[in-house]
Amino acid sequence: MISVRGLSKSYGDLEALRGIDLEVRRGEIFAFLGPNGAGKTTAISVMEGYLDRDGGDVEVLGEDPANADRDWRGRVGFVLQECRMEALLTVRETLAMYAGYYRAPRSVDETIELVGLGDKADERAGRLSGGQQRRLDVAVALIGDAELLFLDEPTTGFDPSARRAAWQVIEGLRELGKTVLLTTHYMDEAQELADRVAVIAGGTIIADGTPDDLGGRGDAATVISFDLADVGAAERVRGAVAGEWAGANGRLELRTGDPTRSLNELTGWALAHDVDLARLEVSRPSLEDVYLELTGTEPGS
Amino acid sequence: MSAASLVFHQFRFEQKVFWRSPAAVFFTVMFPVIFLLLFASLFGDQEIESLGIDAATYYVPGIITLAVVSATLVNVSMRMVEMRESGRLKRMHGTPLPTWAYFGGRIGNSFVVSVLMVVIVTLLGRVLYGVEIPTETIPALLVTLIVGTFAFCSLGLALSIAIPSEQAAPPITNFTVLPLYFLSGVFVPESEIPDGVLTFASLFPIRPFFQAFLTAYDPLTQGAGFDWGHLAVVAAWGVAGILIAMRFFRWSPRHG
């Protein structure tokens, strides 16, 4: 559906995209994950045909979006990062207006139901909450029954329940057989929705793959951690259980490629020596850890 | 959909938005009516000697000029800025709707509101102040209206490009047209305005547009009342507006 090779774009001296490659297949939900200013919106704008590129090849639905015609526009739907709908038209009127632009639009009422605005159909857009307005925006993207949807930060600024609702709508698109390219800076959103993720930072794609495998996450070591204040006991356990040990301030961490065996050895040793492993945890690196490591950002920054 | 039905489709929604917008209805419909009642009631019986007509007959085409410029230039300029800065214009541009169909709907909206205002102001003039309805010059009136709608819509489009934000739209638009109303004899009878000022005002489109209407409404006008000279000036401004708009038009918000 989308094929991008060596895409580059600069704004003056600022290189927003430094040659990115991208493949999105039919029926896939593909997430572009990256911090603000990474180049996500620039890349999506080129694919939508809004922005001229400096270099590289871009093919969307078999055509170069820079030369897109009306037929192509009818096959692509999108949610822009910022768009306020007409405040004086109702939800139903807004969708009826956009439906009139397409050759074979979806049913207005069904689309309203799909985005969960059924009880707001006759409310003017100006009276909807922020989350509801965004859902109306998504409904407008769907009304043309396009095969391919670009969603640029579809849930930014949502409260948690509105995000959940939006995720359900996007999951619904998968069932309709749509291909979706979305951008987000939320890890959990990419994890929840995407079949494949590309992490973009500083204008280049620094990792891509399924959310489970991203950045070598699939083969990454498991971390077992627990509290052990007694320095002597800490010394002895390091000697007794094999693995890569680390730790500070009374909390020990064991990295292991074989967590079943390591955990068995560890707990066996603890029971035999009557040592309490307080706040024992077993974890794999989260997508967030991978992302923070990849993009070089500090947690919480 | 056929070309005509696409334009009509867009026109219908532009109409809905227009009539639901308190600011648009106030400034385009109520404001001119209030001014007509005010001016014609205060000065209606006085004769404007240089023209040989009473003030009420003078103010009917004057207020029509005000209403049409408001329905076209002012309305288009403010709405285009709002459409652009809200991101809606960019979104609309990404749909299969052809650009001409969108602008067709917008201009259609301005034209229908303008026709309605001509009818309202003419009827009020007749009923309240005995200003004659210019039946013989109706074709001239229509041509003036069509040329004016085209010209002032395209000038509204051109003006919207120079306006950086939604907050700036009302002051910039009003400061563009308000002084011209005064200098062009729309608010103050032209007999009270120095010749030099009138000559200066004639360089801009509002004065010749008003004169074309005045010719059509003047009971002393002989024949069909076509004022081709002044209409040509208005049309030239319209062409300039379209050229500027085509060269510099932006679909995306300024900040994005």
What's the alpha carbon Rg of chain A, rounded to whole Å? 24 Å
Give the number of helices of chain A.
10
The structural domain count of chain B equals 1
* Overall average pLDDT of chain A: 87
SSE succession of chain A: EEEHEHEHHHEHEHEEEHEEHEH
Number of strands of chain A: 13
Give me the secondary-structure category of chain B: mainly alpha
The low-confidence parts of chain A are: none
Enumerate how many helices of chain B there are, as a single number.
Answer: 10
How far the N terminus sits from the C terminus of chain B, by CA atoms, comes to 33 Å
Helix content of chain A: 25-40%
Q: Shape of chain B, please?
A: globular
Integer average pLDDT of chain B:
93
Largest sheet of chain A: 6 strands, mixed
Content of β-strand of chain A = 25-35%
Overview of the molecule:
The complex is a heterodimer of chains A (301) and B (256). Chain A is an alpha/beta fold and 301 residues long. Chain A contains ten helices and 13 strands. Chain A has helices spanning 40-48, 70-75, 91-99, 108-114, 130-143, 160-175, 187-193, 231-240, 259-272, 287-295; strands spanning 2-11, 14-24, 29-33, 55-60, 76-79, 148-152, 179-184, 196-201, 204-209, 222-227, 244-248, 251-256, 278-283. In chain A, the strands form three sheets. Chain A has a six-stranded mixed β-sheet, sandwiched between helices. In chain A, helix 3 packs parallel to helix 5. The mean pLDDT of chain A is 87. A two-stranded antiparallel ribbon of chain B has the order 1-2. In chain B, helix 3 (55-85) runs parallel beside helix 6 and helix 3 packs antiparallel against helix 7 (169-183). Chain B is globular. Chain B starts with a helix and ends in an 8-residue tail after the last helix.
